[in-house]
């Protein structure tokens, strides 16, 4: 019930007196109005903007923040008002909701900011009025799609779980060629051979030279063997590629059903069928038809070209518009062909021998091609012919803008994704700089403060770089906290350089199984290196949120050229520590250098207490914890 | 109003459309002017209303705020009235009863209920004496305001009340229920068995009925 109408409840109750004389039973007792609050003004101070309203207005919706006792938490006694540290512009709309019962969505506001405010004030977005609901839903959907896109790209581009099987690695290499050099090489090689194959098909038909009988001979006939060898080579490569993909696909059935796979099959089938079929005269006609299918190899380029994929996707998504276009064209063609046929029936030597014959004329005219092989001779025919060409222009022009706008939207979406990817490198570098700043600040604190570890000396240069910014109290408390964590886990934070140097100096170890998830870390509990090692040997995929990944990504991007797959190694420090029993076992495994991305380090050893440590120790590579600034 | 004129501007109407448009604009504006005059209703001063009704100043303020919120133009027409009243009875159809109520409130019978009508009616219902309330109820039942309640009028009223219940009731509402209820009512009220109930019969009978007297006091504290 709308809030405003609630104000009429007293009237409705009063009007109930009209029922009393006819009532057949005695009336129930009226409810005792215990809390007859005086209707007073409430002052709501939202970041300085003072809003005032009646208390009753707010209490119309008792299940929201402002309408319930929850607002008492924000009561500011000194000024006798309710203070909210939120956005006053958006608050305006929220307060209007209480007043009018309708929630509006301001178009210029960011959708996520608006959603946050609604969530804070306990208002569900579903009650947005009809006037603004569509806009709200559209914006929300767009935003969600964009975030999804981002995540997809992120997930696909960035570091894989380190313990991927060979099959998974291969599939990843196929899907994202820029993840490893091998994949890139493969990608270009297949692209090259597709081009070669298509060119060969084309050149095959070019006439070059004459036989003894003065018959034109195509290049294909002349150099039959060469072309056959070339074709064979290409088909070999395509077959191998297809089989490899089939093998690597996580869901083989789905892969076989996919469009690209069908194209692959269609591209290589003619060759095999041709091998199988004998040089029989009867079937040679069919054989020729099969050769036509070889041209489908050109569609294999769509794996290499995003633009082609976008075009295909657009056509698919505009299927209804295209269908409508086709349908209306067919209707028009039939109508005009009939008319033209009957109009030209009288004229002598008319080319319009039948209605189907007139179809050709109609199509050529409607699409404004106008070959001129069939022209109307009678006046009536000419009149209808001109009407036909005019209408053709209109009918074709109608669905085209829809298709164009669809294509434009999809294309821009992909452009945006590309742009974001390009910007990501700079962003990550900046994030990394900030984070290492934090680390350095902490290390400086330690250096200045309490400890005198030898290893810290290596970090001294790094430590001098940045100074604590604005809030020194906060910083010192934070550093103290990190220090406590170090003491708890008996491990220490180091900065990147030290870490890298210690990583590289210890031999690379092949990692059979590695990363444990943070969840396993939390289950491990307690300090102690043994728990860390045991967790390391568990095979679990990462469940780290993207936020944590950011720091790691940063480090990896810088190592983009050489990608080292490392085992969590024992660092120099831990070797000093007598408790680290498993050191020996770990070191015994042989080094392994692959063109794979750096594996994700394990999460912090101990259960992070509170939010702080959860976000800060970004990763733990055999007891080395990287700190990210808060 | 100008908005109506603009909304009549349909695109691509051609020459005929232009003529029609202008005609429509003209007639619209005439009607709008009338509506305009009606729509700009401001209630009499607060003091006058205070004198005429039994509400305090503060209560009138609260009442007016609620009234104006729902009807910014200052008057309620029958459709709005039905709308508002129906919101309180979502299960059934309150439009018939709202129609009767509207007529009861619209004391000057001009097709719309102004704030004065509204507040005068409420004053009777909430702060009036029992006699006044019964008078008001009689006025409600007497649809044609001829001073007599006939069986047909009562049946209409009864049906309207039962309509507000809707379909999902327990026990199941039957066709004859309103009629039966009317018969009971007439048996009680119609003393001289002449088929109509006059105001005196009505008031008399109600004053002797304890239940009715008690229920009249029910809504004293609504505001």
UniProtKB/TrEMBL annotation, chain B:
InterPro entries: EF-hand-dom_pair (IPR011992), EF_Hand_1_Ca_BS (IPR018247), EF_hand_dom (IPR002048), Recoverin (IPR028846)
Bilayer topology term: Peripheral membrane protein
GO molecular function: calcium ion binding; potassium channel activity; potassium channel regulator activity
GO biological process, one term: regulation of potassium ion transmembrane transport
PROSITE patterns: EF_HAND_1 (PS00018), EF_HAND_2 (PS50222)
Family matches, as CDD domains: EFh
UniProt keyword annotation of Membrane present: yes
SMART domains on file: EFh
Presence of the UniProt keyword Phosphoprotein in the record: yes
GO CC term (a single one): peroxisome
Keyword terms: Calcium, Cell membrane, Cytoplasm, Ion channel, Ion transport, Membrane, Metal-binding, Peroxisome, Phosphoprotein, Potassium, Potassium channel, Potassium transport, Repeat, Transport, Voltage-gated channel
Domain EF-hand, residue spans: 93-128, 129-164, 177-212
Subcellular location per the Swiss-Prot or TrEMBL entry: Cell membrane; Cytoplasm; Peroxisome
Family assignment from sequence similarity: Belongs to the recoverin family.
PANTHER family membership: CALCIUM BINDING PROTEINS (PTHR23055), KV CHANNEL-INTERACTING PROTEIN 4 (PTHR23055:SF30)
Name used for this protein in its record: Kv channel-interacting protein 4
Taxon lineage: Eukaryota, Metazoa, Chordata, Craniata, Vertebrata
């Amino acid at each position: 019930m709308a809030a405003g109408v609630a104000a009429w409840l007293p009237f409705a109750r009063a009007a109930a007196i009209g029922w009393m004389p006819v009532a057949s039973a005695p009336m129930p007792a009226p409810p005792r109005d215990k809390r007859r609050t005086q209707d007073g003004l409430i002052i709501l101070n939202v970041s300085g903007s003072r809003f005032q309203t009646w208390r009753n207005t707010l209490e119309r919706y008792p299940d929201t923040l402002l309408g319930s006792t929850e607002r008492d938490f924000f009561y500011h006694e000194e000024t006798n008002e309710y203070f909210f540290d939120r956005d006053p512009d958006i608050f305006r709309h929220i307060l209007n909701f209480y007043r009018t019962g309708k929630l509006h969505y301001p178009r210029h506001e960011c959708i996520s900011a608006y959603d946050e405010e609604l969530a804070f004030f306990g208002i569900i977005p579903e009650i947005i009025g009809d006037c603004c609901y569509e806009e709200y839903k559209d914006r929300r959907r767009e935003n969600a799609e964009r975030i999804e896109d981002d995540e997809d790209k992120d997930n696909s581009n960035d570091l894989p779980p380190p313990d991927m099987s060979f099959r998974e690695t291969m599939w990843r290499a196929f899907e994202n060629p820029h993840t490893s050099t091998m994949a890139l090489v493969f990608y270009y090689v297949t692209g090259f051979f597709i081009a070669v194959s298509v060119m060969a098909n084309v050149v095959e038909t070019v006439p070059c030279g004459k036989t003894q009988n003065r018959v034109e001979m195509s290049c294909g006939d002349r150099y039959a063997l060469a072309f056959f060898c070339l074709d064979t080579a290409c088909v070999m490569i395509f077959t191998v590629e297809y089989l490899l993909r089939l093998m690597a696909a996580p869901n083989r059935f789905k892969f076989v059903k996919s469009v690209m796979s069908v194209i692959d099959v269609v591209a290589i089938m003619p060759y095999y069928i041709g091998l199988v079929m004998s040089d029989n005269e009867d079937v040679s006609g069919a054989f020729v038809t099969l050769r036509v299918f070889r041209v489908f190899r050109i569609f294999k380029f769509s794996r290499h070209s995003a633009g082609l994929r976008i075009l295909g996707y657009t056509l698919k998504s505009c299927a209804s518009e295209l269908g409508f276009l086709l349908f209306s064209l067919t209707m028009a063609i039939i109508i005009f062909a009939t008319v033209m046929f009957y109009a030209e029936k009288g004229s002598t030597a008319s080319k319009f021998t039948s209605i189907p014959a007139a179809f050709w004329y109609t199509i050529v005219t409607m699409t404004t091609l106008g070959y001129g092989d069939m022209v109307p001779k009678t006046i009536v025919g000419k009149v209808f012919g001109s009407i036909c060409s005019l209408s053709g222009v209109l009918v074709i022009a109608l669905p085209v803008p829809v298709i164009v706008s669809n294509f434009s939207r999809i294309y821009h979406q992909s452009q945006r994704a590309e742009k974001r990817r390009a910007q990501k490198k700079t962003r990550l570098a900046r994030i990394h700089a900030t984070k290492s700043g934090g680390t350095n600040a902490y290390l400086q604190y330690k250096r200045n403060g309490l400890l005198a570890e030898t290893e810290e000396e290596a970090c001294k240069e790094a430590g001098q770089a940045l100074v604590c910014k604005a809030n020194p109290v906060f910083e010192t408390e934070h550093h103290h906290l990190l220090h406590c964590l170090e003491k708890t886990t008996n491990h220490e934070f180091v900065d990147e350089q030290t870490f890298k140097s210690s990583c590289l100096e210890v031999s690379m170890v092949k990692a059979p199984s590695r990363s444990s998830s943070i969840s396993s870390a939390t289950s491990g509990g307690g300090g102690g290196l043994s728990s860390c090692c045991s967790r390391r040997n568990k095979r679990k995929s990462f469940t780290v949120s993207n936020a944590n990944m950011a720091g790691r990504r940063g480090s990896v991007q810088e190592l983009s050229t050489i990608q080292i797959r490392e085992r969590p190694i024992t660092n120099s420090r831990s070797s000093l520590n007598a408790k680290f029993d498993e050191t020996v076992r770990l070191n015994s495994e042989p080094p392994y250098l692959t063109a794979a991305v750096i594996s994700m380090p394990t999460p912090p050893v101990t259960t992070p207490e509170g939010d702080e440590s959860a976000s800060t120790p970004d990763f733990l590579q055999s007891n080395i914890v990287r700190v990210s600034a808060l | 109003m100008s908005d109506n004129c603009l909304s009549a501007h349909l695109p691509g109407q051609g020459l005929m459309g232009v003529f029609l448009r202008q005609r429509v604009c003209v007639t619209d504006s005439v009607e709008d002017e009338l509506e305009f005059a009606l729509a700009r209703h401001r209630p009499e001063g607060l003091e006058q209303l205070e004198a005429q009704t039994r509400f305090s100043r503060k209560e009138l303020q609260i009442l007016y705020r609620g009234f104006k919120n729902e009807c910014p133009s200052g008057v309620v027409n029958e459709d709005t009235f039905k709308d508002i009243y129906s919101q309180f009875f979502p299960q059934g159809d309150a439009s018939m009863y709202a129609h009767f109520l509207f007529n009861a409130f619209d004391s000057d019978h001009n097709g719309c209920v102004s704030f004065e009508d509204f507040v005068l009616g409420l004053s009777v219902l909430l702060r009036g004496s029992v006699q006044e309330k019964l008078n008001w109820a009689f006025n409600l039942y007497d649809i044609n305001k001829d001073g007599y309640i006939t069986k047909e009028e009562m049946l209409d009223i009864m049906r309207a009340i039962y309509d507000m219940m809707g379909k999902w009731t327990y026990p199941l509402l039957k066709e004859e229920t309103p009629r039966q209820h009317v018969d009971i009512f007439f048996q009680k009220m119609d003393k001289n068995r002449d088929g109509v109930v006059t105001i005196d019969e009505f008031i008399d009978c109600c004053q002797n009925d304890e239940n009715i007297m008690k229920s009249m006091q029910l809504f004293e504290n609504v505001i």
